[in-house]
Structures are given as C-alpha cells and as structure tokens.
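Record 1 of the preview.
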Amino acid sequence: MSAKHRPTDIQLHQKSRVLEIGYADGTNLRLPCELLRVYSPSAEVRGHGPGQGTLQVGKEDVNITDIEPVGNYAVKLVFSDGHDTGIYDWDYLYNLGMEQDQLWQEYLDKLAAAGHQRKSD
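->
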C-alpha cells in the first residue's frame, strides 16, 4: 500500500453520518457513511468477480458504529445495519474520497435503472 495515502487522522461524525479522513499533505476527505456502505469492498457487495456486485438499497440512514484497525494498512468499518465484512485499505479509502462525486452519481444511476428511489433526508 502507498504510504502517501496513509491517513494521519480519522474521525467519525455520527450525527452527520460522515467519516472524515485527514492526510499529511493537508488533504481532508469527508465520506458519507451511505457511500462507504454501498461501495463496501466486501464480497457481499462487490461479488467474487466482475459484474457480480449487488446493488445496495435502503442505506440512506446507515451509520458506522465501530472502526477497527486492520494491521497498519486498513480499517474494518462496522455499520448500523450489521454489515461488517469490508476491509477498507488506505488506497481504497483515498480513492473513494477523490472519486466520490462520480461514484455517487453512478450509484444514483444504478438505483434509478433498477427502479429504486432514495428516500429524502
């Protein structure tokens, strides 16, 4: 894993359901818990190969209940809906943060294509 993407600070803001990640270069990423949940790197969400992912619906109110370190390279996020199998390595978290606008739009498009609508906040 790239040492460049190793965070210097991780803070969970449960009220706003945002995980804030700071980096030594001053980069500060704010990742909504819903985004982290629907883009979980777990096999349950991504599948075991290309095209095998499962669209996550009804995750608007999901929160993170625990953050567990995994060695020096990742964290395991435990979500309020019971999901706890994704290991988020530093590069994956960084890339989610840098690409979150595009990823969020892709998620909304997939929901719409499947006939699902997010409930409004």
